[in-house]
Write a structure and sequence with these properties.
Number of strands: 19
Radius of gyration: 21 Å
Helix content: 25-40%
Largest sheet: 8 strands, mixed
CATH architecture of the largest domain: 3-Layer(bba) Sandwich
Structural class: alpha/beta
Distance between the termini: 44 Å
Shape: globular
CATH superfamily of the largest domain: FAD/NAD(P)-binding domain
CATH class of the largest domain: Alpha Beta
Strand content: 25-35%
Number of helices: 9
CATH topology of the largest domain: FAD/NAD(P)-binding domain
């Protein structure tokens, strides 16, 4: 492994790989990406793989718009299909979340983004057999849908490598070298790498990596389980991604069966394992919300971490504490859908000194400082 680089990216998930691709497009060839396991082996590869507007904060919606358009032209640009399938998204809210979901619907409508309030009859036409007795509000968006994170990540990786980037698997970043308040290198399990610039795209490790630069990022890793079922006759036809906001809980079609996601427990496991004792709780709620799931048999399962910030938006941009240290982290469950926009804009900021495609300054870590608004 060459032990110098103009830029080092820590983390080989979809955010790190998107940034590597867009940096090489802007002419950065002496680029090193370090992934401690295999590319896409963390949260990106364990995602529910949705893209849409109804999950986003107002601050993030410009990223969503740009990413949506980029994914529609992805095959033309990168030579691989993102497998976008517009399944639609149906959001359900009980008493706890109905007001927030109503405000989100009004925001989307005001911005000209498709969002439909649906009554119980319409909701049941979209996803049959739901138990809606404790649901107060439902919102539907027909354009939202599924994408394939693995195909997207491999396309970014192949195109970045073609332009000279070095994407190294099985090497763990272990610390920073800092002199006179500036990054001069990265410590790794394969030895030090001299560099003036480090990007923290470390996913669930982002808080630890930022601490090397003296930053205490307010990121909490939340564990979600995903269970894959066999065929369920009541849901043999197309249904939208059906998401209950309060828990959260969701289900969508996957091959001949369904995937069911649930869980929000705090966890810092490096390789999150399925807690099979949690399955009873998932089954209980799933049958309550969609009674035909009583017939479902679980075939397999996995678990993943969502690195969440207090305002559900990512942390992007340069650190005030250490020159040459940048953050691209705290994406929660939205990193896959926002990878094109963040990669493009952050590459502009790093190379040109400012992001012109999108304004990333509202995502700075300083918004969490005492006294900030």
């Amino acid at each position: 492994m060459k032990h110098t680089a103009d830029i080092v990216i820590i983390g080989g998930g979809i955010q790190g790989l998107s940034l590597a691709y867009y940096l090489t497009r802007k002419g950065v060839s002496d680029l090193l990406l370090l992934e401690m396991n295999t590319l896409g082996s963390g949260s990106s590869g364990r995602s529910a793989a949705m893209i849409g507007f109804t999950f986003q904060t107002e601050r993030s919606l410009p990223l969503t718009r740009w990413s949506f358009d980029a994914l529609l032209r992805f095959k033309e640009e990168l030579g691989a299909s993102p497998d976008y399938e517009p399944t639609g998204v149906l959001l359900l809210a009980g008493a706890e979340s109905a007001n927030d979901l109503s405000k989100r619907h009004m925001l989307l409508t005001a911005l000209g983004i498709d969002s439909q309030l649906v009554d119980r009859t319409q909701a049941l036409e979209l996803t049959p057999h739901l138990n809606l007795e404790d649901i107060e509000l439902a919102v539907y968006n027909a354009r939202e849908g599924c994408i394939d994170p693995h195909a997207i990540m491999m396309a970014y990786a192949q195109n970045a490598r073609r332009r000279g980037a070095r994407l190294i698997e099985g090497v763990r970043a272990t610390g920073l070298q800092i002199k006179s308040g500036r990054v001069v290198g990265v410590e790794t399990s394969a030895g030090p790498v001299a560099t003036p610039c480090v990007v923290n795209a470390a996913g669930f490790r982002a808080r630890q990596v930022a601490a090397w630069a003296g930053m205490d990022l307010p990121i909490t890793n939340r564990k979600r389980h995903i269970f894959v079922t066999g065929p369920v006759p009541a849901y043999a036809g197309p249904i939208p991604f059906t998401y209950e906001v309060d828990l959260p809980w969701y289900m969508r079609r996957e091959g001949p069966g369904l995937i069911i996601g649930m869980g929000n427990a705090e966890s810092d496991e490096e390789d999150p394992k399925v807690d099979w004792s949690f399955l009873d709780e998932v089954i209980e709620h799933s049958i309550h919300r969609a009674p035909p799931l009583e017939e479902a048999g679980v075939k397999t399962a996995w678990a993943g971490l969502r690195p969440l910030t207090p305002d559900d938006d990512p942390i992007l941009g340069p650190a005030a504490q250490v020159a040459g240290f940048w953050n691209d982290c705290g994406w929660g469950g939205h990193g896959v859908m926002h990878a094109p926009a963040a990669g493009m804009a952050l590459a502009e900021w790093l190379v040109d000194g400012q992001a012109t495609t999108l304004d990333l300054t509202p995502f700075g870590a300083e918004r969490f400082s005492p006294g900030s608004r």
